[in-house]
Specification:
It contains 8 helices and 13 strands. It is α+β, with helices and mostly antiparallel strands. Strands 1, 2, 3, 4, 5, 6, 7, 8, 9, 10, 11, 12 and 13 form a 13-stranded mixed beta sheet that branches.
Length: 284
Amino acid sequence: MEGTRVRRLEDRDIDAAIALTDLEAWGYTPADFQRLLALSPDGCFAAERAGRVVGVLTTTTYDGLAFLGAVIVAPELRGKGVGRDMMEAALDHLRATGVRTVRLNAYLNAIPFYERLAFHGEYEVIRWHGPATPGPRVRGVRPIRANDLDGLARMDAKYFGADRGRLLARLAREFPATFLVAEHDRRPRGFIVGNPSGDSCEIGPWVVEPASGHVGEDLYRGLVHAAGASEVALSGPSRNGPLLEFVRNARFKEVFRALRMWWGAEAFHGDPAGLWAVGGLEKG
């Protein structure tokens, strides 16, 4: 769009980025954008017009896979090409860095926009809110240790579809008390990460090996105790039967649905049967 330029998002833009995302009540914090910039310093973008940030887009790269998110444009400029310009800049950047597959979680009203850019639908991701009902404490669930990270990254890659060890390492530093691991015979069977804020706790990533019994519920109960929250929120795949049963039994409320979509090579599928909560709609 004439008069608008797309450039790299920088630390100085964080307040403006939050002001834009607050228009949709997405709940981003300065720490969220600092994390995104740390994980992908050259892959986050701002659209600027007359010295004002009027659009934001972030990418997070895991080897040949990238997740794209936090896409927003100032209301008065929507439908005028700003979003398309940011998308094209991001996809050009990702191609140049060797990314073969790009994924995103699209709000349902934005699906036609992404389809015009050659994105294809996979499955729905559901957002839930619910009460943090504590249960009995369980054995075998404990806070993460530094020597867990390599094993967790290998297990996680089977279900996520790519190595996100850098993300897990950063989350372990940020949330050491609410990054919990479940193990059996000295091998991890699942993990859960909570980002507590006041009385609420955002859950994700949350990964559980299929056919692991009550590991998913054990991790959840451990997190509720560790976080001390009264409410929780999470987004998880619609193709995970045990997760759907869990949220139904926990009486969580569905808030909205997004469509997971892909662009480029149809690769890095992962397995949603092991994914109980994404690590954020923008990070996958």
